[in-house]
Write a structure and sequence with these properties.
This protein has helices spanning 19-38, 77-84, 110-127, 132-142, 152-187, 191-204, 253-256, 270-283, 349-357, 367-436, 439-442, 446-480, 500-505; strands at 67-70, 98-101, 211-215, 220-224, 248-250, 262-264, 297-302, 311-321, 327-340, 343-346, 488-499. By secondary structure, it is α/β, with parallel strands linked by helices. A five-stranded mixed β-sheet has the order 7-11-8-9-10, with helices on both faces. It has a two-stranded parallel ribbon with strand order 1-2. Helix 2 links the parallel strand 1 (67-70) and strand 2 (98-101). Helix 6 (191-204) packs across helix 8 (270-283). The chain is extended, with a radius of gyration of 31 Å. The model is unreliable at 1-19 and 142-149 (pLDDT under 50).
């Protein structure tokens, strides 16, 4: 399928004139072709998709396709199963899926390929998928390192190793899921937060913002972005379908699942990247440009049940830099407490975070209240600065301990990887010297013997290099986690919180 057959434009303006744009244009081409193929037949004429093995993983093509033809049979049965899995998967509307491959009469490898196909079919029927057991056997048989048929003891040993590896993998997945949940909690990476960030960024560039659209079929709300700011034009291909129709923007992966009329907005989405760039430009600006509209000091009026005394919060950005100049850590610190005229009574960190997360109003302040805040601010500034300095010192100790631990753990992982690689190379060297040495090497012509010796020499040199790196690399890894200076805190914004009764009273 050529990109020009698709009914909507597929090129990014200017993509043909620079290398980065060309790569992006090709990626957009592929995305539009995929979207056209996944569209209903009455919406797009693209019904046949020709692809290399680049399409064998990660694509969901089961919407309207249930026929797959293997132009050739891969040596690795896993690849064959991955291809089939593009259409034979959850969400397939048709009852049966048909996968075909060609048969070559008189081809000497046909008998072996038939064995591969039979193994795939049998393994899938028994286990539901093709594991590494079959793949390893096929590849070793092709290299002449072993007979294709294994003994029962070999198969049992291989299965035990695979089960043990699967257990380790599942533990790693659980650990990563826990880390992901923790990151979402710490950084407030929730659907409502992401939507708010995008909507506020649009308002900062004088855009009306997101338009809510009720979805009665799913009892949920999507959002439309009917127009884009001029500087965001390159984001349009990511919010339209193959026919150029606007997609609903959703921020929850559950709402985006199995939907063709919606696109999931996440941190790496082009729209979110644009939104974060807007906030970043405003954050470090001094208000000299008309697009810089983000204030550093503000106030919020809360209901009396949420706040009975005025409070002040200082939000700062803590940054830790390594000796090599790399940013090792970044976080937001919240400092503050209740206001008692010129003094501040500190509050616990959890209470400060709770106050920061509360929604409030922003009505005009009575002149008396504004004058008092201005008069008290110099004293508040000194106390907040002193409290922030104490927070930074405390975090400095914790960070250095955490970074040392990370450096030690990563150094151990690097050492283990090098040891594993050295073992693989040494095993390969022994296999080459045993299998191709002596009389058998004499059967090769001069070019083949020279290439064999070069390969063997390279492997030996690589083994020696890794052995040296086993001592130097872990030290270098630890060095990456050593701080250059003490962590530094940059004040970002100051927020006064006022109870509703105080503002209403006008005192």
């Amino acid at each position: 399928v050529e990109p020009e057959q698709i009914t909507t434009p597929s090129r990014v303006p200017g993509a043909e004139n620079d290398a980065t744009g060309t790569v992006r244009g090709r990626w957009v081409d592929r995305e539009r072709i995929k979207a056209a193929f996944r569209a209903p037949p009455d919406e797009n004429p693209v019904r046949i998709l020709v692809a290399t093995d680049a399409a064998s993983e990660g694509l969901n093509l089961q919407d309207h396709c249930r026929y797959l033809i293997h132009w050739e049979i891969p040596w690795n049965p896993n690849k064959m199963e991955q291809r089939n899995g593009r259409v034979d998967r959850h969400g397939q509307k048709a009852q049966d899926v048909f996968c075909h491959h060609f048969v070559y009469q008189g081809w000497e490898d046909q008998q072996f390929l038939d064995v591969v196909v039979d193994k795939v079919r049998t393994q899938r029927a028994d286990l539901g998928s093709v594991g590494d057991v079959i793949a390893a056997q096929v590849e070793q048989a092709l290299r002449g390192e072993r007979a294709f048929i294994q003994s029962p003891d070999d198969r049992r040993r291989r299965l035990r190793d695979e089960i043990r590896s699967e257990v380790v993998t599942q533990d790693r997945i659980r650990a990563l899921q826990h880390e992901l949940s923790r990151a979402r909690r710490v950084w407030h990476l929730y659907p409502d937060t992401l939507r708010l960030v995008l909507d506020e960024a649009l308002h900062l560039v004088n855009h009306p913002g997101l338009e809510p659209v009720e979805d009665p079929d799913r009892a949920s709300t999507g959002w439309l972005l009917r127009s884009l700011p001029d500087a965001w034009a390159e984001c349009r291909p990511f919010i339209t379908d193959a026919r150029g129709r606007l997609l609903k923007l959703v921020f929850d992966e559950q709402l985006a699942r199995d939907r063709k009329d919606a696109t999931l907005i996440h941190l790496d989405h082009p729209l979110m990247k644009r939104a974060l760039a807007v906030f970043r430009a405003n954050l470090w600006s001094v208000g000299l440009h008309e697009s810089h509209q983000l204030a550093r000091v503000s106030y919020r009026v809360l209901a009396d049940r949420e706040l009975d005394r005025p409070a002040v919060l200082l939000v700062s950005r803590l940054v830790a830099i390594s000796r090599l100049g790399h940013k090792l850590h970044e976080e937001l610190l919240v400092t503050g407490g209740e206001i008692q005229e010129e003094s501040i009574r500190p509050l616990e960190p959890d209470r400060l975070q709770e106050l920061l997360d509360l929604d409030g109003q922003h009505p005009p302040l009575p002149s008396g209240i504004a004058q008092l805040l201005r008069r008290f601010f110099p004293a508040h500034e000194r106390q907040l600065g002193s409290a922030l300095e104490g927070q930074v010192k405390e975090r400095d100790k914790e960070l250095r301990s955490q970074l040392r631990r990370r450096g030690t753990e990563e150094a151990g992982q690097v050492r283990a990887l090098i040891d594993e690689r050295v073992k693989e190379i040494e095993k390969r060297i022994k296999t080459m010297e045993k299998g191709m040495g002596g009389f058998q090497l004499e059967l090769f012509d001069t070019v083949e013997r020279d290439q064999f010796q070069r390969d063997l020499s390279w492997l030996k040199g690589r083994s020696e290099q890794l052995t040296r790196e086993r001592e130097t690399e872990p030290v270098a890894v630890k060095e990456r986690y050593v701080l250059r200076d003490d962590p530094r805190a940059f004040p970002l914004c100051l927020l006064y919180l006022l109870p509703e009764s105080l503002v209403g009273g006008g005192r």
